[in-house]
Amino acid sequence: MALVYRPMMQLSGILLSLLGWVLSCLTTYLPQWKNLNLELNELEIWTMGLWQACVVQEEGGMQCKDFDSFLALPPELRISRILMFFSNGLGLLGLLLSGFGLDCLKIGERQQELKKRLLLFGGMLFWISGITAIVPVSWVAHSTVQEFWDESIPDIVPRWDFGEALFVGWLAGFCLILGGALLNCTICSTEVHPSSVHYAVVELQDQCQHLETETRF
User: Fold this and answer.
1) What is the rounded distance in angstroms from the CA atom of residue 18 to the CA atom of residue 23?
2) Is pLDDT of 19 > 90?
3) pTM of the model
4) Euclidean distance between CA atoms 76 and 89, whole angstroms
5) Quick one: 75 exposed, middle or buried, by C-beta within 10 A (0-12, 13-18, 19+)?
6) b/e map of 146-164 (b: 16 or more CB within 10 Å)?
7) Transmembrane segments in this chain: where (predicted)?
């Protein structure tokens, strides 16, 4: 049972982590971190991301303009760029390390302790990657809520709202954390080595042969 249970958990963990890493990269480049609906012109929707601001028209057209200066951005967007790059880099490193630590990979079968360490280190990297993906998304969401309910801003001024990229980023962070947890749980599970299974089969065959000889006499 353990021979099937461990690889299945490892495969589930690596697939969840891969999904979280892809979603994290997608969140980094999506321009829909914030949405702005103009009541005066309902045919246009303004969006803002980490790299550019876009105008989406009802006809289906989309025009984007990159931000001119990194220092001119709000603090939450500047820090979010750095943290999202950090999250993507750690996620990629975690995929490489944990991939070499999988039981289904025949490389390094005799170095089980090294493969365990790779899985452990890869799982921890996924945790950190997930946290560093959730922090900037939550920070931008918090600042958006504060600006939305700011009473000092006149009601005539349009308010920014949550964009789709925030929800993608939250999902990415939770997938990375859950995937890393599954990988680390397999380290604590019972492991059955092929050598011990072979020894048990040989011992069972010897017992059967011994019983056959006794029945003959």
Assistant:
1) 9
2) yes
3) 0.79
4) 20
5) exposed
6) eeeeeeeeeeeeeebebbe
7) 79-97, 118-142, 162-183
Q: Tell me the residue type at 18.
A: L
Angle ∠(96,99,101) on CA atoms, nearest 5: 115
Cα separation values, 121 from 10, 140, 185, 186, Å: 14, 29, 12, 13
Residues found in the chain? 217
Q: Give strand pairing partners of 47.
A: 35, 54
Question: How many other C-beta atoms are found inside a 10 Å radius of the C-beta of residue 85?
Answer: 13
**Is 25:95 a contact under the CB 8 Å cutoff?**
no
Please write down the HEC assignment for all residues of 142-160: HHHHHHHCCCCCCCCCCCE
CA dist 125 and 131 (Å) reads 10
Each residue of 106-160: pLDDT tens digit? 665 667 778 888 888 999 999 999 999 999 999 999 999 988 887 777 777 778 8
Comparing 197 with 75, which gets the higher pLDDT?
Answer: 75
| Residues in Cβ contact with 155 at an 8 Å cutoff, skipping those fewer than 6 apart | none
